[in-house]
Amino acid sequence: MGEFIAESEASKNALNMANLASTLPVQVLIFGEVGTGKKILAQVIIPDATIYKAQELNLLINENKINLDEIETIIISNIEKINNIKQLIEKLEKHHIKVVATAEEEKDSFGEKFAVRIDLVPLSQRKEDLSVLTVSYLFEANRLFDTNVSINDMELDVSKNSISLKESIYRSVLFDSVDKEKVLTLLENFLYKEIDSSSDYKDLLEIFEIPLIRAARRRFKSQLQMAQKLNINRNTLRKKINQYDLGD
Amino acid sequence: MQTLIESFSEYDLNPFMIFSSEGKLLHYNQEGEYLFSFVSPKELYELAINYAPKSFGMRSSHINIRYDRYTFCALLVGYEDDERIALRLYKEMTNITHSFGKENLTLTNIFSLLELSKNSVLANKSVLISELYDPTIPQMKLHVEKFLKLLNKIFVEYTDSREIEIRVSLKIGKNILIEGKSYPVCNISISDRESRLKNGDIFHTLAREANVLVIVKKGKIIVEFPIIA
User: Fold this and answer.
1) Which of A32, B123, B187, B217 is least enclosed, having the fewest CB within 10 Å?
2) Is the pLDDT of residue B198 over 60?
3) Taking the complete model, does pTM exceed 0.80, yes or no?
4) Are residues A208 and A133 in the same domain?
5) Is CATH 3.40.50.150 the right assignment for the domain spanning B2-95?
6) How many beta-carbon pairs below 8 A join chains A and B?
């Protein structure tokens, strides 16, 4: 697992809390959306702990498949997904186990069971962290695909924080690394799976025409210019735009 | 005989006082005098009037009333003429002596705990916090988990505040005696002039578990505890 990025004020504060909590005998809750870095921060508090999903841990305990006497620290992810939070934490406390739990949804019992709560705000509110993560993911992706894509060439998706950010960067870089030969092979493989006895040439034509029209629209300013450059009748172009529902 | 009764009254652990018909203090014992540092004689006179018997005589009532750090569970009001009225308050016994659990104490820095608690509760709230800390306060042994939960509960009271002040200081001239040994007292005061706290009593169970004293005043919560190094 990576390093917790703490460039913004909010994440510096969270990291400071994690460092303080690491020295104290307290149970900690880290709260935040998916992809905000909860598990990485949990490992700042208890670096050698094993991570268990809450439901999985419940099952292991109920089936006596885990020896709690041998465990000193534990990270429990998605603790909101179980109904016996209080009982589980009390059981672990009896075995003197230090717990760091993560949650994506609020539960009333959190305040009662966890003395320390660290809130991680979404990446969209941590501009400095977003910038560092973007550069880091882009560097990884460019090295992997042997490309030289810049940040300006891509649309970043932070709807699922670092998860969607990484996905959007890798997708952009991957697409950029694809040459004509790879596209043809990709299409061939795709069509091979799609084609069956009922396949119609005209139906499959959209696979070529939709990307072509979209690309032309990005490249040229008007339908008139698009028709001229693609050497196609304007009426035919307009008909296809309507047919594929590609109007503005 | 009269001297013995007077001495018993004087050294009684419960406050006793006599008011004139105009509410003027005519007599009080040592505990009564101490109580006046937390509540005015005027307020106590009104209490006596409210619980007085309908006619001459004595009337005892079971109440639950708190003045600063003292909780009283009953009172006795009596008058035999129109000139004087007497009031005796009965302390709740649990507040007189308090057992101190020394198990699970961890040597810790009080400022770290305040930082953690403040951020756990107020991190995403728009509360302006000013802090006035005495940096000479040494590390001390506390029941960290319970102490933090108590602080969290206190900070929850201020989530709607615009501005609060946190002060941490040594309580000058006061010591807490535990098992015959005297310890200096640390004082944390969290205040908001605009706030009117009503849930003071909710802290007392947690306070007892965390071995601290919680005093709730208008807009202000004070936490006192021994500095056990």
Assistant:
1) B217
2) no
3) no
4) no
5) no
6) 49
